[in-house]
Design brief:
binds adenosine-5'-triphosphate, alpha/beta, Rossmann fold, six-stranded antiparallel sheet, about 35% helix, about 280 residues
Length: about 280
């Protein structure tokens, strides 16, 4: 791929990369994969040569102790580390290396959305939170905008709670509702891939369970990659789990294998709670 990609990562309607990842002799369609991804903050190599493939319409959890490089990996996938770290290696998405310098990052983020640990709604109404970026991208058709607001809020399992008061400030919602609003805001852009960095860790158990239910529904339409410290959450919701330790991917497999019969002693120790 060449420099003419600058400003033109217009992939709407194009097919996903046909890269196939082989696991247990089954073939799976891959939404995104990394090759030799290495991230350094100055002299600190926080992530070493990570090769991971993410299956389409599945949830993959990234687990590991604090400082093991999970968030560094996740943030690199939509180029959040560009200003603070050196990111080497490839991030392949639909046949393009989106870690290449000539990729339009703004355009790429429409395809790969991010939700953070703390809900960060804009100080605007519920509906404006969803329509803001769409309007910035030139969509002003009121009926179309209203339709997207409704669909996104329904997909994020928030519609029933807010449908009668869409003009209310987003900041008046509970933390759990705000996080589902932020998810609705992300999916309003119709991304392929949703990256979530501990999206439920700041929430109470009931709100956290609602986020989990929401993610299980969303995986019908999106490929989801989530960082979590919560082992039960990883085993409940994810299809695949990658275990990180001191900047390396130690083991990556089907979630049920990681939690019932991991192959590497470090993984056994971590999932059994022997360190963390
Ligand atoms: N912005 C940054 N500047 C400098 N060093 C950083 C930065 N972000 C992370 N690091 C370092 O990179 C390493 C990996 O951190 P990272 O946040 O990716 O780990 P993590 O597994 O996500 O941890 P946690 O679960 O605590 O969020 C750590 O040594 C951390 O101090």
């Amino acid at each position: 791929m060449t420099a003419n990609l600058q400003g033109s990562l217009n992939l709407t309607g194009s097919q996903p990369d046909r890269h196939i990842y082989q696991m247990d002799n089954d073939k799976h369609e891959i939404a995104l994969y990394t090759k030799d991804l290495q991230v350094s903050y100055g002299n600190n190599v926080a992530l070493k040569n990570a090769d991971l493939s993410f299956e389409r319409f599945k949830i993959t959890s990234l687990i590991g102790a604090s400082g093991s490089g999970k968030s560094t990996f996740l943030r690199s996938l939509n180029r959040m580390n560009d200003d603070v770290a050196t990111v080497d290696g490839q991030i392949m998405y639909r046949g393009l290396d989106i870690n290449s310098h000539d990729i339009d990052v703004y355009e790429m983020r429409k395809h790969i959305g991010m939700v953070f640990q703390r809900p960060n709604p804009f100080a605007k109404s519920i509906s404006d939170n969803i329509t803001f970026a769409l309007k910035q991208h030139g969509l002003h058709d009121k009926a179309k905008l209203a339709e997207i607001v409704e669909t996104s809020l329904k997909q994020a399992a928030l519609w029933d709670e807010v449908k009668d008061d869409l003009k209310k400030s987003a900041l008046s919602l509970s933390g759990g509702q705000q996080q589902r609003l932020v998810i609705a805001r992300a999916i309003a852009m119709k991304p392929d891939i949703l990256l979530l960095d501990e999206p439920a860790s700041a929430l109470d158990p009931i709100s956290s369970a609602k986020i989990e239910d929401t993610l299980m529904e969303l995986k019908k339409h999106y490929t989801i990659i989530i960082v979590t410290h919560n082992m039960q959450q990883a085993s409940r919701i994810s299809d695949y789990t990658a275990f990180f330790h001191t900047g390396e991917v130690v083991e990556y497999d089907l979630t049920r294998k990681i939690f019932t019969r991991p192959k590497v002693q470090l993984t056994i120790d971590y999932v059994n709670g022997n360190f963390g």
